[in-house]
Amino acid sequence: MAALTGKVALVTGAGHRKGIGHGIARQLIKAGATVVISDLADMQSLQNGVTDLQALGGEAAATLCDVSDKVSFDQALDFVLKQYKKLDVLVNNAGVAVGNEDFLAITDSDWQLSNQVNLMGAVTGCQTVLPFFKQQNSGSIINIASLAGLGAINGIPANYTATKFALVGLSKQLALQYAADNIRVNAVCPGSVVTQMHALTLQSIAESNGVSLQQAQDIENASIPLGYSANPEAIGDAVVFLAGDGASYITGQALPVAGGMAPGL
Predict the structure, then answer these.
(1) Which pTM value belongs to this model?
(2) Looking at residue 98, what DSSP letter applies?
(3) What are the pLDDT digits (tens) for 142-165?
(4) Hey, which residues does 8 pair with through a beta bridge?
(5) Contact 70, 116 (CB under 8 A)
(6) Fold annotation for 8-193+231-252
(7) pLDDT tens digits for 179-195?
């Protein structure tokens, strides 16, 4: 029997088929879970993602969800419960990467969007599912933070770092508060991951150092002890572990998934 057979998971920010959210959904499906993916993306994009997931042999569905809107998140939870009568795992993956590595160049809108999605999106998700998890006396919440939520990394905008630190702190506080309800809350902190955003990171490295994109990849690889960037599925493997019974005694942790890459200052 697969590790997550019989469990239902909701993954936010999973609309892009090359993103971390979709990689997480793929690994959850492979582990036997029923998965509902959500995003701001149009429904057709989500349905294409569902088709990909179902091709792996599992049960999947999709619903639109704006994580910054409590009503929208309520509707997403209602969809899951009407469809499957239960929810076991919430993965707060939705996030944005905006801003400027020059602190003084970060705009108010950059700060507002980062806080609204990276932190408050997860807050909204937790506020939405925790009453249900308390009622059923079980549940696992996994917040996708960042290696930049464990240490300041050169070149990463301060607004991004600040919200990811806050997300780690939120995870720890909720883990403490809801442990008596048999609810576990953990964070996963990815390092370099090959997603649709990775090309932008390489472009920034290339421009900063006056090198080619391939040389930029070499520079990044040199900072990773294992020597390469992860695929989104590597983040999914960590989520599967934390969601499963093998991690039943683990809560309040922030797990780096970064190939040994240092978490920064």
Answers:
(1) 0.96
(2) -
(3) 999 999 999 999 888 999 999 999
(4) 34
(5) no
(6) Rossmann fold (3.40.50)
(7) 999 999 999 999 999 99
